[in-house]
Specification:
Length: 580
C-alpha cells in the first residue's frame, strides 16, 4: 500500500502573510487561477449560452411542439443521484412550462441495467408516450433507440457521458461531449444538460406567446437546488460554469427557496439547510438519494424530489435514510471480503498488481461501485469490483486513479479482445461494464496487461496537495466559517487543505471508529484545537507526541456551540521537522 506524500502547491509560502480571512481567500482563489477580485461563482448571467449546445434547436422543437399539442412526455433517467435529480428536474420543469402529460420511468439496475436498452423501450411503450426523453443516459443506447424507432416512438437523448463509435439514431441529441459540439464546458452533469434545455424551451415558448396570466412563465432558477445536488453528487469538474450552477443552487437552499425533498434529505442527515455547503450535498444528501438506486428502486428518491408536501418529503427522506443504513451494512461486509481478496493478490507479501479485479459470489451489484472506490482509495490502484448480474453475466463497477482514463482503458481491452466485454461506458474516473461469468479470468489478465502498459509496475505515489501552513492567527471560527461558504469547492476547484506539525495533547476514539485529537502548535503560537479523523481509528496507536497533519479547517457544531476544528485527511509521525 502506497503511503500518501504531502506536496505543497506553488505559492504556498505566501499564505503566511495573510492577516484576515478575506486575504486568505484572495490568495487561495489566485492559486486556483482566479484574478484578483474575480468571483469564484458569478451570477447566472455569466453562464455559457444554451445556443452553443449542438442539437439544442432540434430538441427544443420536439419539446415545445409536444407541450403545445398536449403530447405525453416520458422521462427515462438513470438510477444514480445525477439521474434522479435530472429526472425530477425534467418532470417538474416540463410541468411548470405547461406540459399536460409528463411521466417518468427509472429502469431498475437489477432488471435492466444501465441505459435505454430495448427492454426498457418495451416497458416504456406500454404507457404509449409521444416522446421519450432520456436523462443522464442514452448516448450509447444504439439498439434501444433503434427499437423505439421501430415502435414509432421518437427519442430525445440528453446525456453528458462520452459517446461510443456510433451515435444512436435519435430524433435529437443534446450532449456537450458529442462530436463537434462547440459548448465550452464539457463538464456539465446530466442534470445541468436538462436545466439548459428547459431554459431554451422556455425561451421558445415565450416567443410563441405560450405564457399568459392563466399560464404564468415559470422561474426555472427556483429548481437550481436540484441542479446543485446532482452536479455535486456526480463529482464532475467544478469549472466556472458548474460553480455558478452549484453556488446559485446553494444560495436558494440557504434562503429556504428549495424543494421540500432537498430540505428533507439535508434535515434527516442532520445538516442545517440554512448553512448548507457543497460538501453537505456530496457527503450527506447524495448518499441517501443514491441508496435508493443501489439497494431498492430509485423511484422513492425521485418521489422525494418531486413532492411539494413537507410531511410526505420527510417520510420519504426517512425511508431513504433507512436504505442508506442498509447500504452501509452491506458495504461493510463486502469491504471486509474485498480486503481479504486484495491480501491474496499480494505478489511477494507486500506488492500488488497495478490494477485490481475483485469478485464476490454474493456481492450486491448496487454497492460494488462504492467498494471499488474504497479499495482504490486505500491501495491507490484502479479497481473493478464485479457482482453477479443475472443471465450468466457479471457486472463490474470500475474506479480509477489520476492519470488513467478507465473508460478508454476498457475500450482498449474491448478492441484487443473482441467479444470479451459485452457492454461498457463511463468517464475517466468511473465506468461500468458487463462480461460473461466464464470470461472473468481472461478479462482480468487483459485488464492487468493494459494497466501495466499505462502505469508500469507501480502506480504513481498518491499525493495530498496542501496550501501550506495555516497561520495561527487564522485558525479561528471566523476563518472556518469563511472557508465553508466560499467556493463552492469540489473536483477541479478543491477545498483548501493545509498541513503542519502539532503536539498531541489527547487522543481517543469516538463514534464508529473515528479518531478524536486535541492538538496544539505552540511553536506557531496556536492554542489547543480539536481535530477529528473520520474512519481513522486504526491510527490511534500512532497518535502521540508530534504529528504532521494534513487537514481542512471546518466548523464543529455541537449542541449549538460552534468552534473551529481540523478535519484530518492524513497523519504521519514526525520528530517535529516538517519536510516537503
Amino acid at each position: 500500500m502506497s503511503s500518501p506524500r504531502i506536496r505543497r502547491v506553488s505559492g504556498s509560502a505566501a499564505l503566511a502573510t495573510a492577516s484576515t480571512p478575506a486575504e486568505l481567500l484572495s490568495m487561495l482563489y489566485a492559486q486556483r487561477g482566479l484574478a484578483d477580485g474575480e468571483e469564484a461563482a458569478p451570477g447566472l448571467g455569466s453562464l455559457h449560452p444554451a445556443g452553443a449546445l449542438r442539437g439544442i434547436e432540434e430538441a427544443v422543437d420536439l419539446l415545445a411542439g409536444q407541450i403545445r399539442s398536449g403530447g405525453h412526455l416520458l422521462v427515462v433517467s438513470d438510477y444514480d443521484a445525477d439521474g434522479a435529480t435530472g429526472g425530477a428536474l425534467a418532470v417538474r420543469g416540463l410541468r411548470s412550462l405547461g406540459a399536460a402529460r409528463v411521466s417518468y420511468l427509472i429502469p431498475s439496475r437489477f432488471a435492466f441495467g444501465y441505459g435505454l436498452s430495448p427492454g426498457v423501450v418495451e416497458a416504456a411503450a406500454a404507457s404509449r408516450p409521444d416522446l421519450v426523453m432520456t436523462v443522464d443516459n442514452g448516448i450509447s443506447s444504439v439498439s434501444g433507440v433503434a427499437r423505439a424507432r421501430e415502435l414509432g416512438i421518437p427519442v430525445l437523448v440528453t446525456d453528458h457521458h462520452l459517446p461510443g463509435e456510433r451515435l444512436p439514431a435519435a430524433a435529437a441529441i443534446v450532449n456537450p461531449n458529442q462530436p463537434d459540439c462547440p459548448f465550452p464546458s464539457k463538464h456539465l452533469a446530466g442534470v445541468g444538460v436538462v436545466f439548459y434545455l428547459l431554459v431554451a424551451v422556455r425561451t421558445r415558448l415565450r416567443e410563441r406567446g405560450w405564457f399568459s396570466a392563466r399560464r404564468p412563465e415559470p422561474n426555472l432558477a427556483d429548481l437550481l437546488d436540484l441542479v446543485a445536488l446532482g452536479t455535486v453528487a456526480d463529482v464532475v469538474t467544478l469549472d466556472r460554469n458548474n460553480r455558478i450552477l452549484v453556488e446559485q443552487g446553494l444560495r436558494r437552499i440557504r434562503a429556504g427557496r428549495c424543494g421540500a425533498g432537498v430540505r428533507a434529505l439535508l434535515t434527516v442527515a442532520g445538516r442545517d439547510p440554512s448553512r448548507v455547503t457543497a460538501a453537505d450535498l456530496a457527503f450527506f444528501a447524495a448518499p441517501r438519494l443514491n441508496a435508493a438506486g443501489r439497494i431498492q428502486d430509485m423511484s422513492v428518491g425521485v418521489e422525494c424530489l418531486l413532492t411539494e408536501d413537507p410531511l410526505a418529503a420527510s417520510e420519504l427522506a426517512r425511508a431513504l435514510d433507512d436504505l442508506n443504513r442498509r447500504r452501509r451494512e452491506i458495504e461493510g461486509q463486502m469491504r471486509g471480503q474485498a480486503e481479504t481478496l486484495v491480501a491474496g493478490l499480494s505478489l511477494d507479501g507486500s506488492s500488488l498488481p497495478p490494477g485490481l479485479c475483485l469478485f464476490g459470489e454474493d456481492w450486491h451489484q448496487g454497492v460494488s461501485g462504492i467498494v471499488a472506490a474504497r479499495i482504490r482509495e486505500r491501495y491507490h490502484r484502479p479497481v473493478i469490483a464485479f457482482a453477479h448480474g443475472g443471465e450468466g453475466l457479471l457486472r463490474g463497477s470500475a474506479r480509477s486513479i489520476e492519470g488513467l482514463h478507465i473508460r478508454d482503458l476498457i475500450a482498449l481491452v474491448d478492441r484487443r479482445c473482441p467479444g470479451l466485454v459485452e457492454r461498457f461506458g463511463g468517464h475517466a474516473m468511473a465506468a461500468g461494464l458487463s462480461i460473461r461469468t466464464e470470461a472473468l479470468n481472461r478479462f482480468e489478465d487483459a485488464f492487468a496487461e493494459a494497466v501495466l502498459e499505462q502505469l508500469g509496475d507501480q502506480p504513481p505515489q498518491p499525493e495530498i496537495c496542501s496550501e501550506g501552513a495555516l497561520p495561527a492567527r487564522l485558525m479561528t471560527l471566523e476563518t472556518a466559517e469563511a472557508l465553508r461558504v466560499a467556493g463552492p469547492w469540489g473536483k477541479g476547484f478543491p477545498e483548501p487543505r493545509f498541513d503542519g506539525t502539532f503536539e498531541v495533547l489527547g487522543a481517543r476514539l469516538v463514534g464508529d471508529g473515528h479518531l478524536k485529537l486535541r492538538v496544539s502548535d505552540q511553536a506557531a503560537g496556536a492554542g489547543p484545537i480539536d481535530a477529528i479523523g473520520f474512519n481513522m481509528g486504526e491510527h490511534l496507536s500512532e497518535a502521540g507526541g508530534k504529528l504532521r497533519l494534513a487537514y481542512r479547517l471546518d466548523v464543529n457544531d455541537y449542541r449549538g456551540k460552534r468552534s473551529p476544528q481540523l478535519l484530518i485527511e492524513h497523519l504521519e509521525q514526525t520528530r517535529g521537522t516538517a519536510h516537503l
